[in-house]
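note to self: dont lose this again. the chain is below, predicted strucutre after it. 415 aa total, dont forget to put it in the shared folder this time
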Amino acid sequence: MFDQSAPLFREAFRLVEELEGAGYQAYVVGGSVRDAMLGRPVHDVDIATSATPAEVQRLFPRTVATGLKYGTVTVVTGRYTFEVTTFRREGPYGDARHPDFVQFAADVTDDLARRDFTINAMAVDSRGVVTDPFDGQKDLQRKVIRCVGDPRERFREDALRMLRAARFAAQLGFDVSPATIDAIKAERKGLAKLAVERITGELHKILSAVEPGRALRLLWSACLIEEIAALFLNRFPASPPRNQLASLEAETDVYLRWILFLRLCGVKSSEAQRVCRELKLPRKWTRELSLLWREGEKWSNGLMSNAEVRRTVFAHGLKRSLRIVRLAYRFGRLSRREEQLWRRRFRHADWEMPLDDPSQLALDGRALMQISGREPGPWIGRVLDTLLDKVVSGEVINHPSRLEKEWRLHGPHAP
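---
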């Protein structure tokens, strides 16, 4: 049963009806059909039609020519946009990503035959009738990822589909069919043709998925990990220790999953920054992953005063502080009980923290100059740093009079 009641679908099927009313075939197709059947959230809806791009542009008043070479026009309707693509057959994929040419087709079955997996090769018309020539609904019921047609041919067309198979397994909790796995093993060298950004994008989706372990086991069993690791290592990763893989599966934080994944691949903390750059991760992620890895690896369960705990939370922020001790636990440097104790201390320190940012210090450089009668200079920064540390550690209340008193007692003769 296909539910068309969601506002996004209602609008999509309104376009389908307009196309049908103008004498064309039209269907909602692809991933939105799959997700709707699984009861998953749908954010994008694609439409396939027998109308040519020029006919689509004439029919709808607001369109954007986003992919005319491949038969695609974006139709804009109020809050929503829909990619409307003419039924097509595809030529060979010379760049392992795009077909060298496309030919418009007369039938939706020809269009569905070019798609990657059976669960993505279904179409629904305005009456809710499902066209499913490759048994995608059965594979949804069986929870199986299976290619449309010859899997080796599908992967030669676009090698990224091998990672997409792993990603769908992780996102949906499905198994990958044996024939599809065999084809991945046979065609895995094709990953070398792909842009690093595309590979990293799929890895991020895998590590953000509900069951990343399903995908990671496939990466190792199908030897895909060797091709991925070749992007950033000059050595092949060994099979991951079972406890390390289980630790990654139990983790829910995507930043920590990335670190645990790279560690499974044999990356060392000293290599983290370089590897993240070679994977073309965003700068923010590169900095954060490197810092978390470095701090988590050296964290120990030694004694730390309340003042030091407060300084740590102020320096890193609560979220990062909690990630550091969670990573230390994942690395085996803390027991579960020890990690929970640190988390409680960090949360308490954050709750007690009188300020979130140095700019919230109740005394500034101008006030210091008025109190002291001194000219501006580096001494101001040194005094403010000292006062800030005393406030953060809980030694002094963050109030102008208290800070002035502290400075008069300990700071007026500071160089």
